[in-house]
Amino acid sequence: MKVKETLLWILDKNGRDKARFDKEETQKNIDFVHSLGLKCDSVGWCRLDLSDKNADTILSKIDLFCKASGWSARGVYDRTYEDFESGYYVLTPSALKEDAIGELREYESENGEKIPSFDIRAYRDPAPGPKNRGDIVLVPERFRDFCLKNNVTGVTFLWARDVGKYSAEQYFQLFCNNRIPYVAVEKSSYQGDRASIEALGGYLPRIDDIFQSVQQVVLTDCYIEKYLHDCDVSNAFIPRSFSMNGRNSFLIRKELAKKLLKERVLPVNSLKPAFTAKEAPGGYDVRKTYASPHPTAEVLTAGISGYEKLKAAGRKARTVTEKEALSVLRKAKKERRGDFGKPLPASASVDAAYRLLLPYYLVADGGYLSDEYRLLPYGEAVKATVSFFSALDTEELLDSRPDGVVFAVCPDGDTVLLLKNGKVVRFSHEAPEVVEERQSLPQFIVDAIYE
Question: 396: helix, coil or strand?
Fold first, then answer.
């Protein structure tokens, strides 16, 4: 098992009001980060991968700077685990996009409690995977269909009412009958708790020595083996409180998880091996879970009726014209000029495979469409295409090669391709598979800018 430790940190001048912006102090903070060979945001927040060979030196320099300059450091410590085997996988939803969320709703439950839910505009979040907002977890209809076909028991699905204008894959709110009674999680606070910090080990004790405040410690949840169920799907629900982040976790047995991935029911990044142990690790806090309320039979029946009516009626597909997309791109460039490159000359020509992209290059030859998508300059895109398909030649698990060119990238390492059929796909860096798809380049440009 590989341990990954990350530190999100910032410096403050001692005695100053943190709510008051001071341009000179902020610049000094940024300059210090840059002197370490690191990058930061506009006020000085910096993310340090503690596996970096220079991590010890960087921490020492932070310590010396604070002692010499009358400053202090604070931050958030994050620990995850990689490269390990587990008998269970955790469903890892992505946050549902804000503009996909509609009216909030409450439904009757079997025990009389109200169940929170909401309408959605499914077409506004085209990535076909599990989604969440707070404690509410949604799964795509392909997951529900798979469970029904394969007789997966213990799960219940409530249709998320789709009030969107265009056709899209439908979603269902997920419930589970198999409750995991206890889960080991991080404590609500480690301030002054040196014993727990020492028990967790790693870089945390040293950070605690140097930093005035470790504001939060984020740990991977640990599932204690004696509390796990011998079933396909189980659930651990801990409501959010003032001092505790909520949990609504779903564990899926390894055999079922592998089948879900193999049959492309869920994208590879939506299932992660669950961290399990015989006992809770030192420094963790064992929390009791709660039985989440389930919708009544009447509520479920009404939901399925609405779902079937919508499917039978059908809706038109969303279309975005090139003219609309170029208008959105020009507006984004005007508002965020520093995020985009200069346009290609009007006389420029591109390879035939990039013909559809030329109108966009004539607005900006590369740039940040959003925090999630970077449009590559034409020359860089050509080189990235060669590198991408060269790397793909070594993949043994790929069913078929995408037929297209690379033109954008994501911060997590995913690659975006324009296919010969005009569609745009996001290709995962974790496994050779498509995790998002848009029907056209104009649609992708608009979606990416409004991400």
Answer: coil
